[in-house]
Amino acid sequence: RLSGRVELTLGAEQTAHLQKAHVLPTNDSAKYTWDVELRTEVKALFTSEGFVDRVGTDVETIGVVMSDTSFYAESGGQESDIGTLIVTAADGSVVELEVLDVQVYGGYVLHTCAALHDSQSLQGLSVHSPVTAKVNYQRRRQTAPNHTMTHVLNFALREVLGVSVDQKGSAVSFEKLRFDFGLNRGLKATELERIERQINQIISEGQTVHSQVLPLEQAQKIPGLRAVFGEVYPDPVRVISVGQDAMDGALSSVEFCGGTHILNTKEAQAFVLLEESAIAKGIRRIIGVTGTAALSAQELGDQLEVQAADLQARLQELQRKKSVDVEGLDALVTQLRKDVDAAVVSSVLKVRLRDSLESLQKSIYAIKSEALMQKVEAEALLLREQLVSLVEKGVSQAVLVVNVGSEARAIKRINDEIKSIAPNLSYLLVSADDTKVSVFAHSLQPDRLRANDWVTAALQDLPGARGGGKANTAQGSAIVGSVATNDEAGKDCQNVVMKEAVRGINQAANKFTSQLGL
Ligand SMILES: [Zn+2]
Predict the structure, then answer these.
(1) pLDDT at 119
(2) How much distance in Å is there from the Cα of 151 to the middle of ligand 1?
(3) How far apart (Å, rounded) are the C-alpha atoms in residues 224 and 253?
(4) 389-398, 458-467, 483-492: lowest mean pLDDT where?
(5) Domain 395-515, CATH among 3.10.310.40, 3.10.450.50, 3.30.413.10, 3.40.630.30
(6) Cα–Cα dist 331/344, whole Å
(7) Residue 261 C-alpha to ligand 1 middle, in angstroms?
(8) CATH of 12-135, one of 3.10.180.10, 2.40.30.130, 1.10.10.10, 3.30.1360.120
(9) How far away, in angstroms, is 471 Cα from ligand 1 center?
(10) Residue 1: what pLDDT?
(11) Cα of 255 to ligand 1 centre, how many Å?
(12) What's the CA-to-centroid distance between 488 and ligand 1, angstroms?
């Protein structure tokens, strides 16, 4: 918020200065009243150079202390209000200040401000100027449900995980809420689901959020009170209870808290638990959203669920038709997985979607695998005829081209087929898939025909070819061209390029053996 600006803070020396100058601590009781424009007076002006009675030139960031304020200063994990101060300067001109940050130091509320409009100068602002304080209540309305829901979350955690779960910290902004608690393990998906459901239940019930100020001793006896261990609370203390008046036994939550809250849980609209993770040994963190952010997360979650269900239906349709054409579906599942990973949705839903996409991918893999092996068997059958003919002719070495891709088990099946039909054949096997061509050489006369040299010679015209092996067996491969999976024209073009490469390999391999005089 203060990016690029001097940070103004009041230390003990500065608050002592204010006391000596008979400036009273700020009356901030108006911070719990909503939609007010508070008329008050500038009591002190603070710059990076110290206190000034009147602002001179070249001041861009000014700290304003007023007799009263309606602004909520950052505390209890809740970020401060922002808004504007409308000040009438000594010369009668009106200066609008943008309140960037509000902090309290020893009872003095310091509003760190800059001119709202670039054209306006802060020069001439002076102590005792009349000022109207205008909080940005729209922003506070986004912050308040996040704060109230940290209380409800605290309650829900205890309900789901047991009384031993203790709050370790929280942070509330207009965008999200963060809640840290002690636990020596991660939460199960079922626990996260119960927590999220319980909070949404409390929201939909429209429970009243009560706030009252009670003597500390009396307040500490409230049954079900959640207080942070080791925290020093003021006396009297403000008590926030959800569901019923604290003294009647709140339905959902009772906490000591000075924050600004909603009046009824339904104002939060919805709660989505975005993330649960470890931040330190034994400390977990939950991040959640409420209001429109929660509604959009739910909407996005619904869309992703529909997409996942659609892909599931497509798979079933392919299975029903006994089709093995799953490449397109595979690409869609991969893309949806990426979308799910990047999406701001309920972490519970994320786990569920990932599981279902993973099982989809497994099914697709099984179909592909089945299809590949069928293809390999078909290729092996074709190859068998060719091998029988080679054996009949008494050929001792040959280049064999198959179309089974480059998966090891496919290549192995073909090699086994060759060795069983033509055990006395030295051969160079070439197999291609969309972009990769694999070569495997087997030599029965390694003194004359070195398998590794045969592979090198076969792949010599392909840049980036790799290979290795010995004189009796060797293998190599090369990437040929590239193809965009969903582009038909690109695929056709790639097919031509690949066919050309395979033909080249075949020629180079045959040339190599004829040069050896074989
Ligand atoms: Zn609170």
Answers:
(1) 77
(2) 6
(3) 7
(4) 483-492
(5) 3.10.310.40
(6) 22
(7) 8
(8) 2.40.30.130
(9) 76
(10) 65
(11) 7
(12) 59
